[in-house]
Automatic annotation (TrEMBL):
One of its GO terms (cellular component) is plasma membrane. It comes from the Eukaryota. The gene is OR5AU1. It is found in: Cell membrane. InterPro entries: GPCR_Rhodpsn, GPCR_Rhodpsn_7TM, Olfact_rcpt. The chain crosses the membrane at residues 27-50, 127-149, 155-176, 188-210, 216-239, 251-271. Keywords: Cell membrane, G-protein coupled receptor, Glycoprotein, Membrane, Olfaction, Receptor, Sensory transduction, Transducer, Transmembrane, Transmembrane helix. The keyword Glycoprotein applies. PROSITE patterns: G_PROTEIN_RECEP_F1_1 (PS00237), G_PROTEIN_RECEP_F1_2 (PS50262). It is a multi-pass membrane protein. Belongs to the G-protein coupled receptor 1 family. This is Olfactory receptor.
């Protein structure tokens, strides 16, 4: 549980404190710290391997390098703060910053995965024109466009939520992104509609892009696994009726797409990828020689 403590009346200011059983806090602290460590080390290894290996300097691996960077970033916006939550009060500014960067990085990842689907489509269906279709300029535009779309969405999302008034002593029971709208003491219908429209547009546009390229995308089982994990949990969290919300389910799904997926991505893209394994063997071979 997370308690939002306030003085009586309405305010824009929130202070966040944890309200968990001490034994559960210690267990979750150890579990989350372990998963976060594996996430950072695994994705950092992928990032550095792609950057240092000349054989991996292609548009496909450039996008994969960006995916590893995003996994580190959006996991880092949530897990360290969650670990701090077990120990002390969170400032309202820190809470707003966490939501802003988390929403920005996760939305950017949605668009980046869609860009990877386009890359696979070009490689499979237009092999002879692949170098022209996925030139360095196009690859750079896809990456920058993913970040731009992600943080534009995040800016609107965060500004809308924290322009509301909150009042009373409030308690929310969610790990990372609690349903803050339900805690407001003013009408939130316009904000809810706006956020729903943006979430629908982001998820559906990326999903349709992937489905259009599905014939090519499905030839790569690792990409398809990552897509199913990321988009499946995201759809479940944000595009279902509020009446179907269940605390236990939401907590479980939040852990999956915030912690489990960033841990799995390096394994998904390395264990089933011959180029990555060859580059890793060469890198380890150079280290032994040195």
């Amino acid at each position: 549980e997370v308690a939002l403590g306030q003085t009586p009346g309405c305010s824009n200011s929130l202070s966040v404190v944890t309200n968990l059983n001490p034994q559960l806090q210690r267990l979750l602290f150890a579990l989350f710290l372990g998963m976060y460590t594996v996430t950072v080390l695994g994705n950092l290894l992928m990032f550095l391997l792609i950057r240092e290996s000349a054989a991996l300097h292609t548009p496909t691996y450039s996008l994969l390098k960006s995916l590893s960077f995003l996994d580190i970033c959006y996991s880092s916006t949530v897990v360290p703060q969650t670990l701090v939550n077990f120990l002390k009060v969170i400032s309202s500014l820190g809470y707003v910053a966490q939501m802003f960067f988390y929403a920005g990085f996760t939305t950017s990842e949605c668009y980046l995965i869609a860009a990877m689907a386009y890359d696979r489509y070009a490689a499979v269906c237009h092999l002879l024109l692949y170098s022209a279709i996925m030139s360095p300029g196009v690859c750079g535009c896809l990456t920058v466009g993913s970040y731009s779309a992600g943080f534009l969405n995040s800016l609107i999302h965060t500004s809308c939520i924290f322009s509301l008034k909150f009042c009373g002593a409030l308690v929310i029971t969610h790990f990372f992104r609690p349903p803050v709208l339900s805690l407001s003491c003013v009408d939130t219908s316009l904000c809810e509609i706006l956020l729903f429209v943006f979430v629908c547009f982001n998820l559906l546009s990326c999903t349709l892009t992937i489905l259009v390229r599905f014939k090519a995308f499905s030839t790569c089982a690792s990409h398809l696994t990552a897509v199913c994990l990321f988009f499946g949990t995201t759809f479940f969290m944000y595009l279902r009726p509020r009446s179907s919300y269940a605390l236990t389910q939401d907590r479980t799904v939040a852990v999956i797409y915030t912690m489990v997926i960033p841990v799995l991505n390096p394994l998904i893209y390395s264990l089933r990828n011959r180029d990555v394994k060859d580059a890793l063997r060469k890198a380890l071979g150079r280290k032994r020689v040195e």
